[in-house]
Give the backbone structure.
Amino acid sequence: MTGVDLGIPRVPGTRTAPDQPRPDDPALIDSFGRVATDLRVSLTDKCNLRCTYCMPAEGLDWMPGEDVLTDDELIRLMDIAVRLLGVTDIRLTGGEPLLRPRLEDLVARITSLRPRPRLSMTTNGIGLARRAPAFAEAGLDRINVSLDSVNPETFARITRRDRLSHVLAALAAAHEAGLTPVKINAVLLRGINDHEATDLLRFALENDYHLRFIEQMPLDAQHGWNRAEMITADEILDLLGAEFTLTPSPVERGGAPAERWLVDGGPHEVGVIPSVTRPFCAACERTRLTADGAIRSCLFSTTETDVRGLLRRGADDEEIADTWRDAMWGKLAGHEINEAGFAQPIRPMSAIGG
Ligand code: SAM
Ligand code: SF4
């Protein structure tokens, strides 16, 4: 089975944005006509797992503590984003966001911002089982839990930690707490867990979780990504097709990265995010803030704009908002993984915020 084109236009590659002045618009517009309304905030670059496709066994040199934005600094920037820049959705990520101290308090402060943003989090789930009700109480709307295998040995092989039971408990607790739909993000690795794709989907269907497979991207700290080894979206669909009948979902995709498929006629669906083989850059609505206060217009940007310095120098809200607008105006057309000369960003995914 091969994928169908679900209608998101692609853009030809270019390493530079057109050189034209930024129009006077309050929103986070770029020179290709996109508007960023979805903010990804990385809360820390630290993690308690060591997924092989993300970071090395020994971990990384974590950011110095004084570089990491404080809760007050994060709230100030998120307030500017929703009040002055038109951001409507915020996703907390990392590294592992649950490692951030007093995260429940930060969530409550974010959901008190006006206009109130929709708030979600991407997490590995370690420690979530106990905390899910408090996050729901603080106003968190939805959660994505990363899970690449429901087999304990495979899980430990990928994450280098024996923690599958913690993640399964986290999923159940998030569902119970009403953080629904509970989504699962899965990455398939050739010869490691690709034979378990249907097990993951069966598990998701049985428990009412929404499963999305993500193509592996060249964002690992070790620079070990190899295109030939990557399991493509079409391969994922073939693997699932061995046990399930997939038909395109009638739901409009909009700016969402996942191609959605009805499983066995529905209503359950599975998503595939073909970041590499069918990039969705032309419909991208994202802007990013790293834990140490840099604005990034793309996961794959090779440049970024510091706002921590502005904050700590006492800049006013309008100056910070304008700096953010300038950063987004220069957003490139696409990530160009598929072009000759592609350069992986210096920061790995865990330090950008996945
Ligand atoms: N630690 C949290 C987690 O694992 O959910 C949040 C950060 S993690 C970087 C966010 C997501 O990025 C996870 O679903 C993870 O599987 C995915 N990810 C990490 N490295 C990746 C890569 N090289 N290619 C594709 N997805 C990746
Ligand atoms: Fe940690 Fe998430 Fe990276 Fe795994 S993917 S090592 S859980 S940051």
About this structure: DSSP finds ten helices and 14 strands in the chain. The two ends are 29 Å apart (CA to CA).
